[in-house]
Amino acid sequence: MEDLIWGRNPVLEALKAGTPVNKVIMARGTRGSMRQILELARQRGVPVQVVEKKVLDALVPGGKHQGVAASTSPKPYVPVEEIFQVAKERQEDPLILALAGWEDPQNFGGVLRSAEATGVHGVIIPAHRAVPLTGAVARVSAGAVEYVPVSRVTNLKHTLLKLKEVGLWVVGADPKAELCYFDADLTGPLVLVVGGEGKGMSPSLTRVCDLLVRIPMCGKINSLNAAVAASLILYEVLRQRLKKGRRSEFGGNPSC
């Protein structure tokens, strides 16, 4: 694993200083002596992963980790409200990409490049069971990570429901959908939800979507790489928005 800091004081000070931390990794049996780290992680919404000591030994050169390490992000995550501010400054209807359980940093970095190129105002990822922002993601993004805000939320379903309440249309990519993506109206305030590699969207997220769209497949392979699929739909959103004109008529309250 890359982007690691380790040792009780370095991890504690990173949490105190507001350093972007993806997760805290703690050796089993040490939680009682890590109360301050655990409390700061809870306050900041940072996941804590408990592992066997030998796992930490393998992650940390020399094994001098004192029972704790932390995975850090190359840039801070932003609240969802900041994504709305980007759209407001551009005078455009919000366009948000939600990644449901992506696990491959290559795909994450690749889709950030497409998101930046197609005018996405921000990306939302779940805090658990998904790849976070890492140095590997930043490198694959070829600089796009610096221009696309990323928000990490504890409950993606809850966040999508809140976005619906303020007027966004939630569109999910689903290979079983009846409607092809280029036949859907994708011009308004929009959240595009794309499931992770192999698993796709969970049934609970599928039920949240206002509309499901599919990418037609004529070959023998029945699915595309997740980043490729997301990019195709994002470029269709861009095409439709350019045809219609991109100025915003959105009046929702982004408090979510």
One letter per element, helices H and strands E, the order comes to EHEHEHEHEHEHEHEEEHEH
Helix content: 25-40%
Class inferred from helices and paired strands: alpha/beta
Global mean pLDDT: 90
**CATH level-two architecture of the largest domain:** 3-Layer(aba) Sandwich
Number of domains: 2
Largest sheet: 7 strands, parallel
What distance lies between the first and last C-alpha atoms, to the nearest angstrom?
Answer: 33 Å
Q: Which radius of gyration do the C-alpha atoms yield?
A: 19 Å
Q: Which stretches are poorly predicted, pLDDT < 50 over at least 5 residues?
A: none
Please list the strands of the largest sheet in the order they lie side by side: 7-6-5-10-8-11-9
Quickly count the helices. 9
CATH class of the largest domain: Alpha Beta
Could you tell me the strand content as a percent range? 15-25%
Net shape:
elongated
CATH topology of the largest domain: Alpha/beta knot
Tally the beta strands: 11
The CATH superfamily of the largest domain bears the name SPOUT methyltransferase, trefoil knot domain
